[in-house]
């Protein structure tokens, strides 16, 4: 399971310049995106019409007319009861009134704030359009970058065992998965670093310090899950939630921007690709692409995701996680996702 930490130390000296440059880039994107919202825009690949996305302040947040978002993407828009659908040849989005949970191309995902109905119109939070949905639907809008150095973070270790069930200790499985993933990535030509390569305790600050010292292009934290009910099963993928928004499943707000927020748009695409590949490879229950303030993905100065690969508290899933062929399936899926993400962000030659 994934440890969290409320307190946040100041950023280490190493990587400050990189954080500043990326934060500046993020600010520029955030300034430009509202122009798409308030001025006429055209998505040439799918629509030849010009239009403006209207907005309204609701519950102290800026919300966009969902039908205008559909037009922006050249999608058909329909409402039936509590559900609103945006659909095209390429994408399918299903939203539900008053819910933060929606589906994008079949993947369960979590909004920062719920969909609102007002004056017979459905509204989508602008922060979710800007930092979550748009980078998934329009990968080409994310700044190009090389992805060659991957840091893997096997969760827990040493005197911190993580979750335990029937003699199976999470820290050991996390390391098994991380080593398998590292071996595959190296065969594919990536440089790989691990926060730990043996069973010893690492504080969260040490994991982040290692990442900021080595400056990887991508950071992936590996965990297994547990629940009070043995019936709970499935895979979860976490990315950091934007500043001033609540974490998934609760109302604990991120009070200010963290280093990881400089990569909100990159994280959205990374999380979506990672979660999609894991579900496709495993046929596991989809527990969602979620957003939460986990310390290691909040504080690193690069795109990052935290994976919960299954529940050790569920007998069937625990048995799968112990099988070599299932470990290979999940490990290959993680590597395929990293490769897909690299190709999506690859600079043009």
SSE blueprint and pairings:
Layout: H1 16-38, E1 55-58, E2 61-65, H2 66-72, E3 76-80, E4 83-87, E5 92-96, E6 101-104, E7 107-110, E8 116-118, E9 121-125, H3 126-137, E10 149-154, E11 164-165, E12 168-169, H4 170-187, E13 191-194, H5 204-214, E14 218-225, E15 235-239, H6 264-282, E16 286-291, H7 295-299, E17 304-311, H8 315-322, H9 324-345
Parallel strand pairs: 10-13, 10-14, 14-17, 15-16
Antiparallel strand pairs: 1-2, 2-9, 3-4, 4-5, 5-6, 6-7, 8-9, 11-12, 15-17
Helix pairs in contact: 3-6, 4-9, 6-9
Model description:
It is a single chain. This protein starts with 15 loop residues before the first helix and ends with a helix. With 349 residues, the protein is an alpha+beta fold. The protein contains nine helices and 17 strands. It folds into two domains: 94 residues, Copper amine oxidase-like, N-terminal domain (Copper Amine Oxidase, Chain A, domain 1, 2-Layer Sandwich), CATH 3.30.457.10; 201 residues, Aminopeptidase. 36% of the residues lie in helices and 23% in strands. It is globular, with a radius of gyration of 20 Å. Helix 4 crosses helix 9. The strands form four sheets. The protein has a six-stranded mixed sheet, sandwiched between helices. A five-stranded antiparallel sheet has the order 3-4-5-6-7. A four-stranded antiparallel sheet has the order 1-2-9-8.
């Amino acid at each position: 399971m994934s440890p969290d930490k409320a307190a946040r130390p100041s950023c280490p000296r190493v990587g400050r310049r990189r954080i500043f440059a990326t934060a500046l880039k993020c600010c520029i994107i955030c300034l430009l995106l509202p122009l798409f919202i308030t001025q006429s825009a055209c998505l040439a690949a799918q629509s030849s019409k010009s239009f403006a996305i209207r907005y309204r302040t609701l519950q102290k947040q800026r919300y966009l007319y969902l039908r205008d978002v559909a037009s922006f993407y050249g999608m058909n828009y329909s409402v039936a009861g509590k559900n609103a659908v945006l659909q095209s040849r390429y994408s399918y989005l299903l939203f539900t009134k008053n819910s933060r949970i929606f589906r994008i191309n079949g993947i369960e995902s979590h909004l920062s704030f719920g969909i609102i109905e007002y004056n017979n119109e459905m509204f989508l939070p602008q922060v979710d359009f800007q930092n979550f949905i748009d980078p998934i639907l329009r990968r080409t809008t994310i700044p190009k970058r090389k992805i060659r150095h991957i840091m893997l973070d096997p969760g827990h270790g040493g005197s911190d065992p993580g979750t335990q069930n029937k003699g199976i200790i999470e820290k050991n499985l996390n390391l098994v998965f991380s080593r398998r993933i590292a071996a595959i990535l190296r065969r594919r030509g990536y440089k790989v670093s691990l926060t730990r390569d043996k069973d010893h305790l690492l504080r969260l600050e040490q994991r982040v310090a290692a990442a900021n010292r080595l400056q990887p292009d991508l950071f992936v934290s590996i965990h297994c899950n547990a629940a009070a009910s043995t019936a709970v099963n499935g895979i979860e993928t976490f990315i950091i939630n934007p500043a001033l928004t609540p974490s998934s499943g609760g109302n604990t707000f991120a009070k200010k921007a963290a280093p990881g927020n400089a990569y909100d748009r990159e994280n959205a695409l990374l999380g979506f690709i990672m979660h999609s590949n894991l579900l496709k490879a495993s046929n596991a229950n989809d527990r969602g692409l979620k957003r939460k303030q986990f310390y290691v993905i909040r504080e690193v100065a690069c795109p990052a995701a935290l994976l919960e690969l299954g529940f050790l508290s569920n007998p069937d899933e625990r048995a799968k996680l112990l099988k070599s062929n299932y470990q290979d399936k999940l490990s290959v899926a993680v590597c395929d996702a990293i490769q897909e993400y690299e190709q999506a962000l690859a600079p043009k030659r």
